[in-house]
Protein backbone atom coordinates (compact mmCIF):
# COMPACT_ATOMS: atom_id res chain seq x y z
CA UNK A 1 0.00 0.00 0.00
CA UNK A 2 1.32 3.41 -0.92
CA UNK A 3 2.24 5.81 1.87
CA UNK A 4 0.07 8.84 1.02
CA UNK A 5 -2.60 11.08 2.47
CA UNK A 6 -5.12 8.32 1.73
CA UNK A 7 -3.23 5.89 3.93
CA UNK A 8 -3.47 8.44 6.73
CA UNK A 9 -7.09 9.37 6.04
CA UNK A 10 -8.27 5.75 5.94
CA UNK A 11 -5.70 4.17 8.25
CA UNK A 12 -8.24 1.69 9.62
CA UNK A 13 -9.22 0.46 6.15
CA UNK A 14 -6.20 -0.44 3.97
CA UNK A 15 -8.56 -2.38 1.70
CA UNK A 16 -10.43 0.85 0.89
CA UNK A 17 -7.16 2.62 0.08
CA UNK A 18 -6.19 -0.18 -2.30
CA UNK A 19 -9.55 0.08 -4.05
CA UNK A 20 -9.24 3.86 -4.38
CA UNK A 21 -5.95 3.40 -6.22
CA UNK A 22 -7.31 0.47 -8.23
CA UNK A 23 -10.35 2.30 -9.59
CA UNK A 24 -9.09 5.89 -9.46
CA UNK A 25 -7.06 7.76 -12.05
CA UNK A 26 -4.33 10.16 -10.94
CA UNK A 27 -3.69 13.38 -12.87
CA UNK A 28 -1.41 16.37 -12.34
CA UNK A 29 -2.47 20.01 -12.75
CA UNK A 30 -0.83 23.41 -12.72
CA UNK A 31 -1.96 26.51 -10.85
CA UNK A 32 -4.90 28.12 -12.64
CA UNK A 33 -6.12 24.92 -14.34
CA UNK A 34 -9.87 24.29 -14.22
CA UNK A 35 -10.68 20.72 -13.23
CA UNK A 36 -14.46 21.18 -13.10
CA UNK A 37 -16.58 23.92 -14.62
CA UNK A 38 -20.13 25.03 -13.92
CA UNK A 39 -22.83 23.11 -15.82
CA UNK A 40 -20.38 20.30 -16.59
CA UNK A 41 -21.34 16.66 -16.12
CA UNK A 42 -19.81 15.03 -13.05
CA UNK A 43 -18.38 11.66 -14.03
CA UNK A 44 -15.80 11.33 -11.27
CA UNK A 45 -15.05 12.66 -7.79
CA UNK A 46 -11.73 14.48 -7.21
CA UNK A 47 -9.64 13.64 -4.16
CA UNK A 48 -6.69 15.99 -3.69
CA UNK A 49 -3.44 14.12 -3.07
CA UNK A 50 -1.12 17.14 -3.21
CA UNK A 51 -1.62 20.88 -3.65
CA UNK A 52 -4.87 22.78 -3.23
CA UNK A 53 -8.09 23.59 -5.13
CA UNK A 54 -10.50 26.46 -4.66
CA UNK A 55 -14.23 26.07 -5.30
CA UNK A 56 -15.97 29.09 -6.82
CA UNK A 57 -19.54 30.07 -7.59
CA UNK A 58 -20.22 32.44 -10.52
CA UNK A 59 -23.22 34.79 -10.56
CA UNK A 60 -25.25 35.71 -13.63
CA UNK A 61 -23.45 39.05 -13.96
CA UNK A 62 -20.08 37.25 -14.15
CA UNK A 63 -18.96 38.01 -10.62
CA UNK A 64 -17.37 35.17 -8.69
CA UNK A 65 -17.17 34.33 -5.02
CA UNK A 66 -14.92 31.86 -3.23
CA UNK A 67 -16.82 29.14 -1.36
CA UNK A 68 -14.03 27.04 0.14
CA UNK A 69 -10.63 25.43 -0.40
CA UNK A 70 -9.92 21.72 -0.85
CA UNK A 71 -6.62 20.59 0.67
CA UNK A 72 -4.66 17.34 0.46
CA UNK A 73 -6.74 14.42 1.70
CA UNK A 74 -10.03 16.21 1.01
CA UNK A 75 -12.61 16.11 -1.76
CA UNK A 76 -15.43 18.29 -3.09
CA UNK A 77 -18.75 17.57 -1.40
CA UNK A 78 -20.54 19.38 -4.24
CA UNK A 79 -19.10 16.81 -6.64
CA UNK A 80 -20.21 13.97 -4.38
CA UNK A 81 -23.80 15.19 -4.24
CA UNK A 82 -24.04 16.19 -7.90
CA UNK A 83 -22.43 13.00 -9.14
CA UNK A 84 -24.59 10.69 -7.03
CA UNK A 85 -27.76 12.41 -8.26
CA UNK A 86 -26.59 12.69 -11.87
CA UNK A 87 -26.79 16.49 -11.78
CA UNK A 88 -24.66 19.14 -13.48
CA UNK A 89 -22.02 20.93 -11.48
CA UNK A 90 -23.15 24.21 -9.89
CA UNK A 91 -19.59 25.28 -9.00
CA UNK A 92 -16.18 25.71 -10.61
CA UNK A 93 -13.08 24.04 -9.20
CA UNK A 94 -9.77 25.78 -9.98
CA UNK A 95 -6.26 24.73 -8.97
CA UNK A 96 -4.85 27.17 -6.40
CA UNK A 97 -1.50 25.36 -6.05
CA UNK A 98 0.01 22.78 -8.41
CA UNK A 99 -1.94 19.65 -7.60
CA UNK A 100 -2.05 15.89 -7.90
CA UNK A 101 -5.64 14.64 -7.97
CA UNK A 102 -7.13 11.16 -7.82
CA UNK A 103 -10.40 10.91 -9.75
CA UNK A 104 -12.81 8.22 -8.57
CA UNK A 105 -15.63 7.19 -10.97
CA UNK A 106 -19.06 8.18 -9.64
CA UNK A 107 -20.40 4.61 -9.71
CA UNK A 108 -17.70 3.55 -7.24
CA UNK A 109 -18.75 6.25 -4.78
CA UNK A 110 -22.10 4.56 -4.10
CA UNK A 111 -20.49 1.13 -4.04
CA UNK A 112 -17.93 2.17 -1.43
CA UNK A 113 -20.69 3.64 0.75
CA UNK A 114 -22.27 0.19 0.96
CA UNK A 115 -19.00 -1.70 1.48
CA UNK A 116 -16.92 0.65 3.65
CA UNK A 117 -18.31 2.54 6.69
CA UNK A 118 -15.09 4.62 6.72
CA UNK A 119 -15.98 6.01 3.31
CA UNK A 120 -19.43 7.13 4.48
CA UNK A 121 -17.87 8.72 7.56
CA UNK A 122 -15.39 10.54 5.29
CA UNK A 123 -18.26 11.99 3.25
CA UNK A 124 -20.17 13.11 6.35
CA UNK A 125 -17.07 14.79 7.80
CA UNK A 126 -16.51 16.67 4.55
CA UNK A 127 -20.16 17.70 4.41
CA UNK A 128 -20.01 19.01 7.99
CA UNK A 129 -16.82 20.98 7.34
CA UNK A 130 -18.10 22.55 4.09
CA UNK A 131 -21.45 23.40 5.68
CA UNK A 132 -19.68 25.35 8.43
CA UNK A 133 -17.47 27.11 5.89
CA UNK A 134 -20.49 28.13 3.80
CA UNK A 135 -22.19 29.48 6.92
CA UNK A 136 -19.09 31.57 7.56
CA UNK A 137 -19.30 32.92 4.00
CA UNK A 138 -22.97 33.84 4.42
CA UNK A 139 -22.24 35.52 7.76
CA UNK A 140 -19.32 37.48 6.29
CA UNK A 141 -21.33 38.71 3.29
CA UNK A 142 -24.31 39.67 5.42
CA UNK A 143 -22.59 41.28 8.40
CA UNK A 144 -18.94 42.08 7.67
CA UNK A 145 -17.43 44.93 5.70
CA UNK A 146 -15.29 44.17 2.66
CA UNK A 147 -12.07 45.19 4.43
CA UNK A 148 -12.67 42.63 7.18
CA UNK A 149 -13.55 39.95 4.61
CA UNK A 150 -10.38 40.77 2.68
CA UNK A 151 -8.13 40.44 5.72
CA UNK A 152 -9.95 37.25 6.72
CA UNK A 153 -9.31 35.79 3.25
CA UNK A 154 -5.62 36.66 3.41
CA UNK A 155 -5.31 35.06 6.83
CA UNK A 156 -7.09 31.93 5.63
CA UNK A 157 -4.71 31.64 2.68
CA UNK A 158 -1.81 32.10 5.09
CA UNK A 159 -3.10 29.39 7.43
CA UNK A 160 -3.65 26.91 4.60
CA UNK A 161 -0.20 27.38 3.08
CA UNK A 162 1.57 27.73 6.43
CA UNK A 163 3.27 30.95 5.31
CA UNK A 164 2.79 34.65 6.09
CA UNK A 165 3.67 35.38 2.46
CA UNK A 166 0.55 35.04 0.29
CA UNK A 167 1.09 34.75 -3.47
CA UNK A 168 -1.92 36.28 -5.19
CA UNK A 169 -3.06 39.28 -7.25
CA UNK A 170 -5.53 42.05 -6.56
CA UNK A 171 -7.69 40.67 -9.39
CA UNK A 172 -7.75 37.19 -7.87
CA UNK A 173 -8.70 38.54 -4.46
CA UNK A 174 -11.45 40.67 -5.99
CA UNK A 175 -12.88 37.64 -7.81
CA UNK A 176 -12.84 35.50 -4.69
CA UNK A 177 -14.58 38.22 -2.67
CA UNK A 178 -17.08 39.05 -5.42
CA UNK A 179 -16.06 42.71 -5.58
CA UNK A 180 -14.13 45.07 -7.87
CA UNK A 181 -10.33 45.07 -8.22
CA UNK A 182 -10.15 48.80 -7.55
CA UNK A 183 -11.90 48.24 -4.20
CA UNK A 184 -9.39 45.54 -3.22
CA UNK A 185 -6.43 47.70 -4.27
CA UNK A 186 -7.69 50.61 -2.17
CA UNK A 187 -8.30 48.42 0.86
CA UNK A 188 -4.90 46.71 0.57
CA UNK A 189 -3.22 50.11 0.47
CA UNK A 190 -5.07 51.07 3.64
CA UNK A 191 -4.05 47.81 5.32
CA UNK A 192 -0.45 48.54 4.38
CA UNK A 193 -0.66 52.03 5.86
CA UNK A 194 -2.10 50.50 9.04
CA UNK A 195 0.92 48.21 9.29
CA UNK A 196 -1.06 45.00 8.80
CA UNK A 197 0.38 43.93 5.43
CA UNK A 198 3.30 44.65 3.14
CA UNK A 199 2.51 44.72 -0.56
CA UNK A 200 4.74 43.33 -3.30
CA UNK A 201 4.37 42.24 -6.91
CA UNK A 202 1.77 39.44 -6.90
CA UNK A 203 2.45 38.79 -3.22
CA UNK A 204 1.29 40.10 0.15
CA UNK A 205 3.13 39.68 3.43
CA UNK A 206 0.97 39.50 6.56
CA UNK A 207 2.78 41.45 9.27
CA UNK A 208 0.64 40.58 12.25
CA UNK A 209 -2.33 38.47 13.26
CA UNK A 210 -5.53 40.44 13.63
CA UNK A 211 -8.62 39.20 15.48
CA UNK A 212 -11.63 39.64 13.25
Polypeptide structure, described:
- Helix 4 packs across helix 5.
- A hairpin with a 5-residue loop joins strand 3 (44-58) and strand 4.
- This protein has helices at residues 5-9, 14-23, 77-84, 106-115, 117-143, 146-161, 170-177, 181-193; strands at 25-29, 34-36, 44-58, 64-70, 92-105, 165-167, 197-200, 203-206.
- The protein is elongated.
- Strands 1, 2, 3, 4 and 5 form a 5-stranded antiparallel beta sheet that branches. Strands 6-8-7 form a 3-stranded antiparallel beta sheet.
- It starts with a helix and ends in a 6-residue tail after the last strand.
- The chain is of the alpha+beta class and 212 residues long.
Beta-strand portion reads 25-35%
- Stretches where pLDDT is under 50 for at least 5 consecutive residues are none
* Major sheet description: 5 strands, antiparallel
* Total count of helical runs of at least 4 residues: 8
The value of Rg in angstroms is: 18 Å
Mean pLDDT: 89
| Topology, number of strands | 8
Q: In one word, what is the shape?
A: elongated
Order of helices and strands: HHEEEEHEHHHEHHEE
How does the helix and strand content classify structurally?
alpha+beta
Describe the secondary-structure layout.
Elements: H1 5-9, H2 14-23, E1 25-29, E2 34-36, E3 44-58, E4 64-70, H3 77-84, E5 92-105, H4 106-115, H5 117-143, H6 146-161, E6 165-167, H7 170-177, H8 181-193, E7 197-200, E8 203-206
Antiparallel strand pairs: 1-5, 2-5, 3-4, 3-5, 6-8, 7-8
Amino acid sequence: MQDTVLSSEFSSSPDLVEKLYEYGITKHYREGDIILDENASIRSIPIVMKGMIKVIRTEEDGREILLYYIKAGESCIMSFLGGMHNEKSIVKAEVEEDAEILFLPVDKVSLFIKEHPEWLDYIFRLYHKRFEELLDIINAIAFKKVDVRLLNLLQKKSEITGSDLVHTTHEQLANELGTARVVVSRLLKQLEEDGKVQLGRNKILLLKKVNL
